[in-house]
Amino acid sequence: MTAPGAVGTGTTGTAETDADRVFAALASAVRRELLRLLRDGGPQPVQVLADHFDMRRPSLSEHLRVLREAGLVSEQRSGRQRIYRLEAAPLAEVQDWLHPYERFWRGRLKDLSALLDRMPDDDVT
Q1: What are the CB-based long-range contacts (under 8 Å, 24+) for 44-51?
Q2: Cβ atoms of residues 38 and 86 within 8 Å
Q3: Looking at residues 103-109, what average pLDDT do you find?
Q4: Considering the entire predicted model, what is its pTM?
Q5: For 77, which DSSP code?
Q6: CA 3, CA 22: separation in Å to the nearest integer?
Q7: How far apart are the first and last CA of the chain?
Q8: For residue range 46-84, what is the model confidence (pLDDT) as tens digits?
C-alpha cells in the first residue's frame, strides 16, 4: 500500500507513508475515542474534548497532534480556541486495506456454516 507523500525516515531505507501515520494514529485507544467524539459531536473545541479524558492537557494535545499529522483531524483557530474537526477521508485507505481480510473471514464463516449444515442433528432429550 503505497501512498503519495512518503517521507524517508533516515538511513534505514524505510519510508513512513501517509497510511503508516494513519495506522499508527489508530493504534491508540485515546485517539480512537477522540475520533469517535468528533464523529458523533461534530467539530469541538479542545477543552470540550479534554473534558472526556482524565489526562493533562499537554498529553491530550500530543494525541491531537498525531491525529492532525495523520490527516484524521483538522484544526481551526477561533479567537483563543482551537476547534477540531474529523477528516474521515484517510480512513478510506484503511478500509481498502482491511477489505481482503473481511472477504477472507466471510469465506471462512461460509465454509463453517456449510459444514454445520452437513452435520447430523443430535437430538438431545
Answers
A1: 44/83, 44/84, 45/78, 45/81, 45/82, 45/83, 45/84, 46/81, 46/82, 46/83, 46/84, 47/81, 49/84
A2: yes
A3: 79
A4: 0.70
A5: E
A6: 11
A7: 55
A8: 999 999 999 999 999 999 999 999 999 999 998 999 999
